[in-house]
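User: Hi! I'm working on a homework problem where we have to compare a predicted structure to a textbook description. Could you give me the structure for the chain below?
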Amino acid sequence: MGIGTSIFLIAVGAIFTFAMDATVGGVDLDVVGWILMAAGALGLVMTALVWGRRREVVTTTAEPVEYHRVEERRDVVPPR
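Assistant: Happy to help. Predicted structure tokens:
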């Protein structure tokens, strides 16, 4: 889940919990809102953990690269 999806779930959950005063048969919209906000917050934390680990610096102790001199010959006549 990305950051955008997490924020969207938090916003929709807040709307269900705090802004709506509707009733649906057998469904408590306040509980649905709290569940959506919790899922969005969990997704935001998980996304931050995954992206935080990607930014760690990895160092290697590789041998230096050897450089070779390349010479170009220009005295060769191209084919006709």
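For your comparison, note the following. Residues 3-54 form one domain. The radius of gyration is 29 Å. Good luck with the assignment!
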